[in-house]
Amino acid sequence: MRRLVFFLPVVILVLLISSLPTWAGSGNAGPIRIGVLAPLSGPFASGGSAFLQAVTLAAEQANAAGGVLGRHVDLVVADTQGRVDIARSEALRLTSREKVFALVGAYLSEETVGVIEVAAASRSVLIVPVAATAEITDLVRRKYERYRYVFRVGYSIPQWAGMMADFLGGLGIERYAFVGAGIRWNRELGKELRKALARKRIVPVYETFYSPRTPAFEPVAVAVMVRSPDILVLGDPGGNAAEFVKRVREGGATFPILSVGGALGDARVAATLPLSAPLYVQAAAWKGASAAATRYAEAFERRYGYPPVGYSDTLPYDAVTLLFSAIRAAGRADSDAVVTALENGAFPAIAGTYRFDASHQATWGTPELHGVVIRWETGGARIVYPDHGAR
Question: Which phi-psi region, left, alpha or beta, contains residue 199 (left: φ > 0; alpha: ψ -120 to 50)?
Answer without folding.
Answer: alpha
